[in-house]
Amino acid sequence: MRGNTGIGKATALELARRGARVVLACRSRPRAEAAVNDIKEKSGSSEVVYRQLDLASLESVRSFAENFLKTEPRLDLLINNAGLLMGGRTEDGLGMMFGVNHLGHFLLTNLLLERLKEGGAARIVNVASLGHRFGSIDFDCLSAHKELGRGSSTFGLMKIYSHSKLCNVLFTHELAKRLQGTNVTCYSLHPGTINTELSRNTSRVLRVLLLPITALFFRGVEAGSQTTLHCALQEDIERHSGRYFSDCAVQEVDAKARDDAVARKLWEVSETLCGLR
Q1: How far apart are CA 75 and CA 1, in angstroms?
Q2: Mean pLDDT, 10 residues at a time, the chain of 277 residues
């Protein structure tokens, strides 16, 4: 999990306090090492480590997975919580938000899936957003441009972010079907509108525009991490595998977020784009 700031760090701290071995997968070494030291100090646990991962690079994802499988004998919980709101391209030529918010997580999950299956009851938690309600999947755009939408205006970027969050929900929906009969379950969730560094790489104008929204629906990172922790730790929710949670409870989603055909096609396109097929 990405845990050097925001919800990820709050989640990692609570898991460390509960005695879990926590591996923080982060892009920035200085920020990650500072977070590891802080979590160790506050939790009293020495079982918190950092591994380098840049979700904007499929090569980095593969390298992380290879190193993880060599050094970590077990994996009980995978939390995919990285997310950004910015334009640009990944090093693989993908739209930045599609690459980081969806495809990097998709590849990482698939590369670690067998290790998850080797243990006892394991879980995958995908941090999505209420914003998925405003998203859609344009497969023609994905085919032609390897991104979820075109445009770099404030409105355009927010729409693409919503598209990427819909990908998270659809990915979880399809993943649950493929995990039936195994010991692994999966969940997507809306953590609440929280004060994180989600948009720290966006323009100053966009950050200013987001201020009234975050002020209106503000939630601290500890509160924002509760639904993630619920999906990670709550007993007897296995029957809800593939479902979407908010405020620590299962929530119904629109038809487009549980469309079997779209979810399956997104999976197949994602496999192709990250070289799994």
Answers
A1: 12
A2: 71 96 95 95 97 97 98 97 93 97 98 96 96 97 96 92 98 98 97 56 52 48 84 97 97 98 98 94
Catalytic residue of the set 50, 161, 187, 244: 161
Active site residue 161: yes
pLDDT of res. 197: 45
The pLDDT of residue 215 is 46
Tell me, what DSSP letter sits at residue 99?
I
pLDDT score at 6:
76
Residue 240 carries which side chain, given as an amino acid letter?
H
Report how far apart, in Å, the C-alpha atoms of 255 and of each of 132, 147, 262, 263, 267 are: 12, 23, 11, 11, 17
Cα separations (Å) of 153 from 87, 138, 150, 159, 225? 9, 18, 9, 10, 30
Q: What amino acid occupies position 179?
A: L
pTM, rounded to two decimals: 0.91
Any idea what DSSP says for residue 3?
Answer: -
CA dihedral 43→50→172→249, nearest 10 degrees, is: 10
Using the CB atoms, write b or e for 171-197: b if 16+ within 10 Å: bbbbbbeebeeeebbbbbbbbbbbebe
Report the alpha-carbon distance of residue 46 to residue 93 in Å, rounded.
39
User: So what's the pLDDT on residue 39?
Assistant: 97
Residues 249 and 237: their CA atoms lie apart, in Å, by 10
Rounded to whole angstroms, the Cα distance separating 232 from 229 reads: 5
Phi, psi of 79 (to 5 degrees): -110, 115
